[in-house]
Each structure stands twice: as structure tokens, then as C-alpha cells.
Write a structure and sequence with these properties.
Strand content: 15-25%
Number of domains: 1
Radius of gyration: 18 Å
Oligomer: single chain
Bound molecules: flavin mononucleotide
Structural class: alpha/beta
CATH architecture: Alpha-Beta Barrel
Distance between the termini: 42 Å
CATH class: Alpha Beta
Largest sheet: 8 strands, parallel, barrel
Helix content: 25-40%
Length: 347
């Protein structure tokens, strides 16, 4: 058993937010676990970059850009830092992260607690030139009236430092944010964001799973018209369907982990159909095994991200998912990951 697996039972005894701080601290020492070499079949060229494997650490794990290189060393093919907002903000009162042990789920209402753009920029500048794919997830401050302006500020600030951008309009914990997903607001936001971009840094839009079909259609239409480079599907859900844990289930916030898997994969498949396979999709929500990752890919994802399962299963999960994904692909006769993208939706 590795060190990180040994530490898990202790971390689980701690308050979830304190456990997360302890994990970040351990990763910052640089003594974190080291992943194995990736199976060749898992490499993929996308968005003008080569991803050594399709598994990324989702936004929210490293809100301030403290440990992207530790996550890459651990075996993730890419790391997404943030959400970062122009000005630092403390987020909602604690407690604001809740573990639903039996459901292998988490509810969080952090509310974009983060140190702001300046702190993020300082850290990203320090690691610049090290290589590895590090995306920057952008958000808006709670008290900003013109929310789109905060995303534009982020694009300008990080263009030379980000491998890609995520425009996060889907956190349930900032009042008014998800309203940016509506047709008119999204057109305005994406127009301004893409206009602010000087070079070619890809811009991805991260959406919620709680969208009715008409909203999914609207988003697909705006995305295709605007020239956004890809979609991340999805953020946490405000739904509480099918939970077995009574404890914490009624807490306000976004639910992540196992109960989100099917719901987020359904939205992913819809977005694959609605965008006709013309833009890359990143599948996220409830991935806790190689089989889950494979399902996302078959539903149309070119890349996959996770967060919650890592807190339940520890760092070994990364190697395990890659190994199992490679063997699932081989079993089904796919030589490369690319060959399996979207096969379940026929596009
Ligand atoms: C504690 C916590 C904090 C999160 N913070 C962010 C965030 O700042 N920005 C964001 O786009 N997503 C955030 N997320 C959502 C994740 O990136 C991901 O979309 C979601 O958790 C579903 O994936 P999972 O089931 O693998 O965790 C957060 C999730 C959790 C559990």
C-alpha cells in the first residue's frame, strides 16, 4: 500500500475542507506519488496540443494554481486550475463541503473562494516553461455587476500562461452565474471573451448538468456560431435524485461524485449530437473507474476529468483508471482512444 492510500483513512476522519488543505500541503512538498508511463493507445492530439492521456484533474481541486505540476507527476494528462476570479474572495461561510460517504458523493457550496488573479499569475509564471498542459478556469466575482467583464479580464491576464481557458458559467454557488448560460447572455459573453483573445489559446465553455433540452439546444447553437473551441460537460448538480445518505443530502450546493455520472453523461451525449461531433467535448461528473471514463468517451468525450472520486479512492485511482481504460479499448478492438469517441451516439 502506498503512502497516499495509507493517509486516506486519516483524511476521512477530518473535516473535508481541512482534509483538502492537508492534501494540497502534502502535494506542495513535491513528495507526492509518481505515476507510471502512459499506455500509448491513450495519447491524443486535440486543441493543438498532445495529451499523453485523456484524464485530467477537474477545476476546484487546485483553485489557486499551487500544485498543477504535482498533479501531472501523479499521472494526470492535464490539470485545470481555478476557478480564479479577478479579485480575491473568501467564499461562503464554513462548513461548506459535505461528504456523503455512502453515495460516494460530495456537496459543496464554496462560492469561488480563491486568492484572485494576481496570486494565480505569480504561481503560473513560476512554472512557465515547464511544459505539461495546464488550463485556467475563469469565473466572476460575486459582487461584479457586469460578469462578462471578469472573464475578459481573465483572458487578457492569462493568455500567455494558460494551455487553454475554461469559461465557467455553471457553478451553482454564485448567484446569477448560471444565468449566463441563457442564449442572449451567452452570445454576449462568448463574443466578448473571444474578441479579447489575441492568439489561439483554446476557449472551452463549462456547462451545468441541470439544463432542459431546449437549453441544451440553445447552448449548442451559440457555441457553434461563436467559434468556441470546446465544451466541458459538466459541473456539479443542484438535483438530489437517488441519494441514499440521509445525512447532508439537504445541504445547499452542488452535488458531485457517483450520483452525477449518468446525468452528466446524458447531457454529454446530447451535446455530442447537437454539435454533430464538430467540437471536442470534455466529459466530467461522477467518473470513478476506467469503465466510467470509457462510457464518457463512448458518449462523445475526447477527454475526461474527475475530482470527487480522487478524494474517496486516493492517488492510485489515476493509474488504475488509465490501465483499465486501455484494457477496455483493447478488448473492444480499438487501437486508439480516438476510435472510440462517440461510438455510443453514432457521431
Ligand atoms: C469541492 C469542489 C469544488 C469545486 N470547485 C469548482 C470550481 O471552482 N470551478 C469549477 O468549474 N468546478 C468546480 N467543481 C466541479 C468539478 O470541477 C466537477 O465539474 C464536478 O465535481 C463533477 O466531477 P466529479 O464528480 O468527478 O467531482 C468543484 C467540485 C468540488 C467537489
Amino acid at each position: 500500500m502506498s503512502l497516499s492510500a495509507l493517509a486516506l483513512p486519516f483524511l476521512r476522519l477530518m473535516d473535508p475542507e481541512q482534509a483538502h488543505q492537508a492534501t494540497l500541503l502534502a502535494l506542495k512538498t513535491g513528495l507526492g506519488p509518481c505515476g507510471k508511463k502512459d499506455p500509448e493507445a491513450l495519447g491524443i492530439d486535440l486543441l493543438g496540443m498532445h495529451f499523453p492521456n485523456p484524464l485530467g484533474i477537474a477545476a476546484g481541486f487546485d483553485k489557486n494554481g499551487e500544485v498543477p505540476d504535482a498533479m501531472l507527476k501523479l499521472g494526470f494528462g492535464f490539470a485545470e486550475v481555478g476557478t480564479t476570479t479577478p479579485r480575491p474572495q473568501s467564499g461562503n461561510p464554513k462548513p461548506r463541503i459535505f461528504r456523503l460517504q455512502q453515495d460516494r458523493a460530495v456537496i459543496n457550496r464554496l462560492g469561488f473562494n480563491n486568492e484572485g488573479h494576481e496570486a494565480m499569475e505569480t504561481r503560473l509564471k513560476k512554472r512557465a516553461g515547464r511544459g505539461g498542459i495546464v488550463g485556467v478556469n475563469l469565473g466572476a466575482n460575486k459582487d461584479t455587476e457586469d460578469k462578462a467583464a471578469d472573464y475578459v479580464t481573465g483572458i487578457k491576464r492569462f493568455e500567455a500562461l494558460a494551455s487553454y481557458f475554461t469559461v465557467n458559467v455553471s457553478s451553482p454557488n454564485t448567484p446569477g452565474l448560471r444565468g449566463l448560460q441563457s442564449r442572449a447572455e451567452l452570445e454576449d459573453l462568448l463574443g466578448r471573451v473571444l474578441e479579447a483573445r489575441k492568439g489561439q489559446t483554446p476557449v472551452l465553455l463549462k456547462i451545468a448538468p441541470d439544463l432542459v433540452y431546449e437549453e441544451r439546444e440553445d447552448i449548442a447553437a451559440v457555441v457553434l456560431e461563436s467559434g468556441v473551441d470546446g465544451l466541458i460537460v459538466s459541473n456539479t448538480t443542484i438535483a438530489r435524485d437517488g441519494l441514499v445518505s440521509g445525512r447532508h443530502a439537504a445541504e445547499a450546493g452542488g452535488l458531485s461524485g457517483a450520483p452525477l455520472m449518468d446525468m452528466a453523461t446524458d447531457v454529454l451525449a446530447d451535446m455530442r449530437r447537437l454539435t454533430k461531433g464538430t467540437i471536442p467535448l470534455i466529459g466530467v461528473g461522477g467518473v470513478s473507474s476506467g469503465t466510467d471514463a470509457y462510457k464518457k468517451i463512448r458518449a462523445g468525450a475526447s477527454l475526461v476529468q474527475l475530482y470527487t472520486a480522487l478524494t474517496f479512492q486516493g492517488a492510485e485511482l489515476v493509474t488504475k483508471i488509465k490501465r483499465d481504460l486501455a484494457s477496455d479499448l483493447k478488448r473492444d478492438g480499438y487501437k486508439r482512444l480516438e476510435d472510440a469517441i462517440g461510438v455510443d451516439v453514432g457521431i
